[in-house]
Write a structure and sequence with these properties.
The protein is an alpha/beta fold. It is built from twelve helices and nine strands. Helix content is 46%, strand content 17%.
């Protein structure tokens, strides 16, 4: 049985300490015929030079550095990173996460059984800044809302869109894309926090299929310094999420997918996340911030 090659690309903007962990974890992958490219998206030439030296320090030809002359917005960096790959299968890893040894075998098993799918995903363990398991409210809520079957989850058509609109349970950096099945769809460069939800549902609207398993083969890091944690303190994330849910509802309604449209309009996870963050603000006496979040939750339609 032949092994289909996979390219792992890491869009890198800064933080070589975490990048060292990411690369070290990749070298423990089970299976062969893979390569990893660190795709430069730094602002500072010194940071780029440090990261390039780190990649070279491993002395492994499977790890390479791809230089670019300019820093671009996050989803533009994702598109640029995917363009680095010469293989059909390509995954975008976060530069502060860790990949588990079984990642390649897990994704290849899905790709072998569902060769026409546009993307494949796996489960993830949530870790903190120190690499230890940590509780994440939003991830817990998504697991609670979405039922988990025993076998692979096959997302397609209205049912797939409704499932993701109920709770975007796909951990974006676990996804391995089959570029030949994406029909030219690209990451939305005008979005930031809810880009994955828009992109994944757009693939489904276009007739593509996404297949996944809840088997954990990735370690996703959540820590106070990351961008997601910072924007959760404001309404930026929630405004963008709400707008994307409205967009999904409009697209679904235009196709006559009334169930998916109704689920998207509910904005279930956004509402719960707002209330959770507001409770945290209240505990820390951030009254104005809590009031803003509760007020915004009350306006969602």
């Amino acid at each position: 049985m032949t092994t289909e090659p996979i390219t792992l690309v890491v869009p890198f903007a800064g933080g070589t300490g975490y990048l060292h962990e990411t690369l070290s974890s990749a070298l423990r992958l089970e299976g062969a015929d893979w390569q990893l490219i660190v795709s430069d998206n730094t602002r500072d030439p010194a940071a780029a030079a440090e990261a390039q030296a780190l990649v070279a320090s491993f002395g492994d030809p499977r790890l390479t550095w791809r230089a670019f002359g300019t820093h671009v917005v996050i989803c533009a960096s994702f598109n640029r990173a995917m363009d680095c790959a010469q293989t059909d299968l390509v995954a975008l890893l976060h530069a502060d996460d860790r990949i588990k040894p079984n990642y390649l075998t897990t994704i290849r098993a899905l790709a072998r059984h569902y060769p026409d799918a546009a993307a494949y995903y796996c489960g993830a363990r949530i870790i903190d800044a120190a690499g230890e398991a940590v509780f994440s409210f939003v991830d817990y809520v998504k697991r609670f809302i979405v039922s988990h079957g025993a076998g692979p989850a096959v997302l397609a058509g209205e049912g797939g869109v409704a499932a993701l609109a109920r709770a975007d349970f796909i951990m974006a950096p676990t996804v391995c894309f089959r570029r030949s099945r994406l029909a030219g769809e690209r990451w939305p460069e005008d979005l930031y926090q809810a880009a994955d939800l828009e992109y994944f549902t757009r693939i489904l609207f276009g007739g593509g299929t996404i297949v996944g398993t809840h088997e954990p083969a990735y370690e996703y890091r959540r820590h106070p310094a990351q961008n997601t944690a910072q924007v959760n303190k404001t309404l930026f994330r929630f405004r963008e999420e709400a707008a994307v849910y409205d967009l999904i509802a409009q697209r679904a309604a235009a196709r006559g997918w009334s169930h998916a449209a109704r689920i998207a309009r509910l904005k279930i996870v956004t509402r719960l996340h707002l209330l959770y963050e507001a409770a945290g603000d209240t505990l820390h006496l951030r009254w104005r911030s809590a009031a803003n979040k509760i007020g915004f939750a009350a306006t969602l339609r």
